[in-house]
Amino acid sequence: MIRSAKVRARANIALAKYWGKSDDTLNLPAVPSISVTLDPMITETVITLDESLTEDVFLLGGEPAADDETARVRKVLGEVRKATGASVFGRVESRNSFPTASGLASSASGFAALAGAARAVYGLPPDARATSILARRASASAARSVLGGFVELPAGRPGDDDVAAIQLHPASHWPDLRLVVAVTSEGRKDVGSRDGMGLSRRTSPYFAAWVEGAPAMADKVREGIEHKNLALLGPALEHSFSTMHALALSTSPPTIYWQPASVAALHTVRRLRDVDGVAVYATMDAGPHVKAVCTAADEAKVIEAFSATPGVLRTLVAKPGPNLEIETA
Questions:
Q1: Domain of 221?
Q2: What is the pTM of this model?
């Protein structure tokens, strides 16, 4: 049996947003989502099997992880042990090249890397679909980070545990697409995505309308990506993200991910496009950071504008990235 496995996974940004579950037990999304896998926003996870351990150990950034995070990791490893008949516990060490739990999809890359490493270290063959399903059970958006390029995760019907991400196009389909992140906070967000989604489903009067309308938004995003047409993609991704955040704001109590710098950065994107004629569009996940989608030709202009925006701490730049990368020893 392989004793150690190292996996690198990339974060992803949903251009057509996922928000809300149809089945909490199986972690199934209530709406379809379409994302781009981001390079170089990387999680590297190493799992080492150790017969001296009496339970799985999880270190995040070199420190023992919180109890709830460790519990989710142990659940993934437990599922793989059950499938393989293995009994040896593992030491899991994970590091992110970008801020953790702050709205930059570290859980997506983290659980994608964990799922790939867990299957590899316990001797299961490479299988992107099976890895995506395993990752989805821990974090729905992680199902998409298993694959590179442009990826869709369909909505799931309650009880359907076979839902997995599908690659629409590889990274080479649109290599000059860029995502410039305006980082507005280095800390953890106050409300996790899982809690925010549950609150939306339970308390928002608009949740049913979101579930009904999201597929049409995804269709427009898919079309824009297929034709590599930013003028088509941009308005669709802005409609999706703003609708998702409107849903979050309509909960009781309201779920507010935006910071003053978030609003300033959104105005920066709008000014770049409407005043300066730059083809750039904004999106946000469940966090305070603003992501600007543009092409490589306009990357420098967006970085300069974000850097001059009050409250923006720094910028990150990403492009379409590859599938999971797995090493075993």
A1: 177-320
A2: 0.94
Same domain, 150 and 14: yes
For residue 326, is it within any domain? no
Phi, psi of 319 (to 5 degrees): -135, 170
What is the C-alpha separation between 234 and 42, in angstroms, rounded? Answer: 25
How far apart CA 297 and CA 73 sit, in angstroms, is 41
Q: Is residue 43 part of a domain?
A: yes
Cβ-contact 190, 287 below 8 angstroms: no
Q: Helix or strand or coil: residue 201? A: helix
Which residues have CB under 8 Å from 299's CB, separation 6+? 178, 180, 317
Same domain, 22 and 166: yes
Please give the full DSSP string across 87-155, using - where no structure is assigned. Answer: ---EEEEEEESS-SSSSS-HHHHHHHHHHHHHHHHTTPPP-HHHHHHHHHHH-TTHHHHTS-SEEEE--
CB 163 within 8 A of CB 153: yes
Dihedral of the CA atoms 67, 108, 216, 259 (nearest 10)? Answer: 70
Please tell me whether the peptide bond between 253 and the residue prior to it is cis, using omega within 30 degrees of 0: yes
Residue 140 tokens read as: 């729905």
| Separation CA 193–CA 205 (nearest Å) | 19
Give the pLDDT score at 190.
Answer: 81
Q: Are 22 and 79 in the same domain?
A: yes
Per-residue model confidence (pLDDT) at position 93: 97
- Residue 274, domain CATH: 3.30.70.890
In a domain, 325, yes or no: no
What's the number of domains the chain is made of? 2
Alpha carbon distance 105, 193 (integer Å): 10
Tens of pLDDT along 74-128? 999 999 999 999 999 999 999 998 765 545 657 899 999 999 999 999 999 999 9
